[in-house]
C-alpha cells in the first residue's frame, strides 16, 4: 500500500463519512440537526423532549489531550437504566463522537430507555493500537464510577457496546478481552458490531477479497507497514477472533454481502463465538452498505430488542 493510495483512500473515506449523516437521518427518521457530521454543526440540545444530551464531558486525559464523550440520557426513567457505549467509525484516522450519525443513534438509544454514551478516542497515525482499545476501556471504567452512575442514573452492572466500522473493530476487541464477570471492571454484557474486522493477521487475506481501503485502515490502526507476521506482530493481539472464549458477552454481527469489509470476517467471528458457546446473531445484508448504513428498521429493532434482553 503506497502513501498515495492511502491518501486517496482517506479522501474517499472523508467524503463517505460526510454522507453517512444524511443516510442515518433518513433511516432513523430523525431531524437533520441530530445527524450533524462535525462537532461544530452539532446541536448540543436533544431533539426529543424525553432525552437530555450533555455534550463534551472529559472521561480520560491520556497522552494527546482530553478525551470527551456525549451523554444521552432518558429523562423519564423511574429506576437505574442500562448503558450503551457508542464507538464511531472513520478508518481510525478520522471521525468523532457526533459525526456519521452517532449523535442520532445516541439519542435513539436514550429514547428507548438506555443511557447512551458516544465517545471520542485517539486517532491514527499519531496514535495506534492499543491506544484506541485503552480509550474505550477508560470510558467504560469512567461510566462505572459511583459518581457517574449516580449522576446519570445508570446501573453500572449493565453496560453494552455498539460500534460501526472502526468502532466495530474496537467493540469486538474490548468485548473479547479479559475473563470473569461481565458486570464489572472493563467488561461489557452485550456487544453489537456493524462491519467489524475480526482477524487482522496474514490469514485474513484469505477471508474474501480485502480491498485496498480496508487494508489501509488496518495498517494505519496497527502502525504496520504490511500484514506480514514479521512486520506486524501486534496483528494477532488486535484480532478479536483470536481472543474469543466462553466468558465473552453475547454479540450481534452485521455485515453487507459486498462491502468494504469482506463478509467472511463476520462469518468467521460468528463461527468462533458459536464454537465457544457464546450467543451470537449474524445478519448479512444484501449489497454494499457499510457500518451505520446497515442500521435499517429491521436491524434497528433487532439491536434494541437485543440490548433490552441482554442488559435487563
Assign the structural class, choosing from mainly alpha, mainly beta, alpha/beta, alpha+beta, or little secondary structure. Answer: alpha/beta
Question: Low-confidence parts, pLDDT < 50 over ≥5 residues?
Answer: 1-27, 29-46
**What count of structural domains?**
1
3D shape: globular
Distance between the termini: 46 Å
Q: Output the number of helix runs.
A: 9
The CATH class designation is Alpha Beta
The count of β-strands is 8
Enter the CATH topology name.
Answer: Rossmann fold
Mean of all residue-level pLDDT scores: 88
Give the amount of beta strand, in percent: 15-25%
| Main β-sheet description | 8 strands, mixed
Descriptive report:
With 312 residues, this protein is of the alpha/beta class. It has one domain (3-310): Alpha/Beta hydrolase fold, catalytic domain (Rossmann fold, 3-Layer(aba) Sandwich). Helices cover 35% and strands 19% of the residues. It contains nine helices and eight strands. An eight-stranded mixed sheet has the order 1-2-4-3-5-6-7-8, sandwiched between helices. Helix 1 packs parallel to helix 2 (102-111). It starts with a helix and ends with a helix. Residues 1-27 and 29-46 have low confidence and may be disordered.
Topology, element by element:
Blueprint: H1 3-28, E1 51-60, E2 67-74, E3 81-87, H2 102-111, E4 115-119, H3 131-144, H4 146-152, E5 154-164, H5 166-175, E6 190-194, H6 212-222, H7 234-237, E7 251-256, H8 263-275, E8 280-285, H9 297-310
Helix pairs in contact: 1-2
Protein name: Alpha/beta hydrolase
Keywords: Hydrolase, Signal
Signal peptide: 1-41
Amino acid at each position: 500500500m503506497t502513501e498515495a493510495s492511502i491518501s486517496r483512500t482517506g479522501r474517499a473515506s472523508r467524503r463517505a463519512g460526510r454522507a453517512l449523516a444524511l443516510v442515518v437521518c433518513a433511516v432513523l427518521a430523525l431531524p437533520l440537526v441530530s445527524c450533524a457530521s462535525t462537532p461544530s454543526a452539532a446541536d448540543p440540545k436533544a431533539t426529543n423532549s424525553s432525552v437530555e444530551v450533555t455534550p463534551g464531558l472529559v472521561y480520560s486525559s491520556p497522552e494527546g489531550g482530553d478525551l470527551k464523550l456525549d451523554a444521552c440520557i432518558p429523562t423519564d426513567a423511574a429506576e437505574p437504566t442500562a448503558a450503551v457505549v457508542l464507538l464511531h467509525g472513520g478508518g481510525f484516522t478520522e471521525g468523532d463522537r457526533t459525526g456519521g450519525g452517532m449523535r442520532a443513534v445516541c439519542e435513539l438509544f436514550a429514547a428507548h430507555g438506555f443511557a447512551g454514551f458516544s465517545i471520542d478516542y485517539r486517532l491514527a497515525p499519531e496514535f495506534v493500537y492499543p491506544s484506541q482499545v485503552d480509550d474505550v476501556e477508560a470510558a467504560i471504567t469512567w461510566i462505572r464510577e459511583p459518581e457517574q452512575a449516580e449522576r446519570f442514573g445508570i446501573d453500572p452492572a449493565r453496560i453494552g457496546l455498539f460500534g460501526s466500522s472502526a468502532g466495530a473493530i474496537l467493540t469486538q476487541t474490548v468485548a473479547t478481552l479479559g475473563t470473569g464477570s461481565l458486570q464489572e471492571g472493563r467488561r461489557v454484557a452485550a456487544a453489537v458490531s456493524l462491519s467489524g474486522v475480526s482477524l487482522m493477521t496474514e490469514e485474513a487475506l484469505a477471508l474474501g477479497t480485502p480491498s485496498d481501503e480496508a487494508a489501509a485502515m488496518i495498517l494505519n490502526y496497527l502502525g504496520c507497514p504490511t500484514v506480514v507476521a514479521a512486520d506486524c506482530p501486534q496483528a494477532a493481539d488486535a484480532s478479536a477472533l483470536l481472543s474469543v472464549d466462553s466468558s465473552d458477552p453475547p454479540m450481534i454481527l452485521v455485515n453487507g454481502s459486498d462491502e468494504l469489509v469482506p463478509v467472511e470476517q463476520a462469518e468467521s467471528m460468528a463461527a468462533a463465538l458459536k464454537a465457544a458457546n457464546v450467543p451470537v446473531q449474524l445478519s448479512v445484508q444484501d449489497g454494499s452498505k457499510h457500518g451505520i448504513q446497515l442500521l435499517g428498521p429491521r436491524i434497528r429493532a433487532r439491536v434494541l430488542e437485543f440490548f433490552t434482553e441482554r442488559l435487563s
